[in-house]
């Protein structure tokens, strides 16, 4: 795909990442034993329905999981040779916003309403670089320029409520790139925006990736976004990885029944005449993470379910090189 | 900004009018003739009583009397007390300073102490400090302030002799700031005890709300230290509702002041109110009603102004 | 985190489970449990006062006046020889009745007005909201003092005044809640089915807005008890010979009594405090149980 993608040395590796949440009704395994690699310079998409754990993965990497009720219960997060799970809070602070940064879903509420955006930006810059206020202000203006905010020098004095949702998300991206991070985690960055703005923001992310060489993890539930903006894709279901492949491969040849269902649900205009005119759906609902049975978590909704699926959890296996799937059909 | 103030003041006028009207009505509908209090023990003939009645204008219909009162008010005259025939204005002014100093002291002390405690309680939720602070604040809210006043006098004044038992100053001594402060402390602290209880809860819940907000998460994601996140991002936003709270504090404090002034023989407006009610001193009551209504409205106005200044979303709503 | 929250929210907890979850949360709140027990004790004390009180609370006996605690009079006697303990026990009746009745009155008024304002909107809402604002901008204490002072101090008057002045807060809450609930599916479907407004309000809206009302009412009981005690203390509330915890403290305004006869004022003060704090704990527990997000 892209010749920027370096397969050999992944910039981030997750091994057996497990994150738990304590609730009134029991312990929820939001992420359950996740193994994932992000090659340097690539955009990895993590896709799944609401509640599958994809946002939790992003928050876990940043170690932003709120300590009660959640915690990282196990596994490793290897970033630039270090295991982030072993870092103290202090050490983690120099990683956040600096080497790994995050963009969140709701631009309307993600910026402090009583601070000017220039203050918000400079504060983060000065937290990681010992430069005087003026210099940080200049760097903030540069960051705003990079995200294509017009009249950056003037608008840097604005308060968040004086900007539209799309602009605020650009500010969030500026915040994410102001210290030149190696990795950006974008958690549903366009879900709350309307379609035209979506395109702009994604295009912006793509351009940043090219100019700064950052790797990106793009978390979304929208397959269309995945198709156009990622090189690798990981599909999650009920806290576990069920399929992982190059994006083109995934769409051409989805292996896991869930992925097949997902790909089929994307309505296509002008597709060949189908007998039925209804939209395809995956029957059933997302399972209750508290009442998961012994078998495959997808068994109840799977159209290709087998006896063994209900009783034993499948392991990951390699189908073709670099195409992983967790399903008894391919074991 | 100026239009805002102007408009608020404009709306306040009919409100004050309404309040005074209702108060006038209630006072005059009450059983009991003010004449009785005026005459006291004197034996007068009905004719003499009538003459007094007419001279005070008490024979006229109610709306006429009210309008007369209003007319006098606009000229700056609040009438004369039935009790000692002194101008109402004078009597109120001399009581204003003690009450105000008490209320000011309480506000300053309780905010200064309660806000930090509330903040710490919120960021260390469910720990020992939180439970201690919550317990203390419950104590403050649940202790009837007249009881804490009595206990305070008993322990700190009678037994420990740290404070005087009441009064504005030591009799016989000349005017001394230290002496005044010394007398202020016990009643002030007793009042502040309850106020702090309320404030700690309020601050704590406001802070808890703010900590959950997305922008706090953004600040953490930027790698800022926890101190900076709490103080610079969370607190600044958590303080906003507390400013509005200031407006509500004044009527609540006044209620406490009335009782505390009784217990500590503090010559303030609260005691004046009770004296006026017990002696059916209508002019003084009307004056006090006016004063408290104005106090409440001004307090709210100030709080709103401060809030508008502190929150850029409101401050700049006219900009673009 | 958001998707986990969404997820658990969408589990569609039926009302049964909500009740049992709320119950479980309440039971975990140890202070609230303690509070409930104490409140129950006080209620029992009030109900069984005639059997529990060792003496007639109004029986005057000058010879026994100002005596400290003794075997015959466990808490001593007051200025005119009445038994403090008996007066204390009977005093609970006053406090509880004020708390209960005043709050009932103003909750009823507030519920009706708030619901109507929230559901029907339009000019009804405007009128009610103006009334709420007007009453709330009153210097309420002045009003209470004046009304009670002039109407004559009595238990009934206090209940009346508190009842008619306390409704704006409840109305505000109820209105807000009604506005929120009005757009819910179950209300819309009732409306679509042609149910009459009264039925919709009673069956669909009311049960779902009660939580904050219950919490507010509980705290309101504590506040009402404090206000009555304060008024009685000032001599403007319940008058002797009827004993109220507040008026029992009235005697202590004299410094000599304060210093030398603590049995007269400490017990009633402590009772007010215990009752108030217990009710506050219960209120806190209810708030946690019914809407943990509010904490």
User: Could you give a short account of the major beta sheet of chain B?
Assistant: none
- Helix-and-strand structural type of chain C: mainly alpha
How many E-type strands of chain C?
0
Q: List low-pLDDT spans of chain C.
A: 5-12
How far is the N terminus from the C terminus of chain B? 15 Å
Overall mean pLDDT of chain B: 82
| CATH topology type of chain C | MetI-like fold
Low-confidence stretches of chain B: none
State Rg of chain C. Answer: 23 Å
Task: Specify the number of helices of chain C.
Answer: 14
The greatest interface between two protein chains, and residues involved on each side, is: B-C, 47 and 40 residues
The quaternary state of the protein chains shown equals: heterotrimer
Q: Overview of this structure, please?
A:
The complex is a heterotrimer of chains A (331), B (320) and C (295). Chain A has 331 residues and is of the alpha/beta class. Chain A has helices at residues 54-61, 89-95, 117-128, 133-146, 152-155, 165-177, 195-212, 223-229, 247-252, 257-265, 307-311, and strands spanning 6-23, 26-40, 43-47, 70-79, 82-83, 100-103, 183-187, 215-220, 232-237, 240-246, 317-320, 323-325. Chain A folds into two domains: 2-99 and 179-262, P-loop containing nucleotide triphosphate hydrolases (Rossmann fold, 3-Layer(aba) Sandwich), CATH 3.40.50; 109-178, no CATH class. The radius of gyration of chain A is 21 Å and the shape is globular. Chain B has helices spanning 2-29, 34-39, 46-55, 62-74, 88-123, 128-142, 145-159, 177-211, 214-221, 226-263, 269-278, 282-310, 312-315. Residues 5-12 of chain C have low confidence and may be disordered. In chain C, 45% of the residues are buried. Chain C contains 14 helices and no strands. Chain C has a single domain (18-294), classed as MetI-like (MetI-like fold, Orthogonal Bundle), CATH 1.10.3720.10. Chain C is elongated, with a radius of gyration of 23 Å. Chain C is an all-alpha fold. Helix content of chain C is 75%, strand content 0%. Classes of the chains: A alpha/beta (331), B mainly alpha (320), C mainly alpha (295). Chain A binds chain B through residues 62, 64, 68, 89, 93-98, 101-102, 104, 106, 109-115, 123-124, 127-128, 159, 161-162, 172, 175, and chain B through 126, 213-215, 217-226, 228, 232-233, 236-237, 240, 310-313, 316, 319-320.
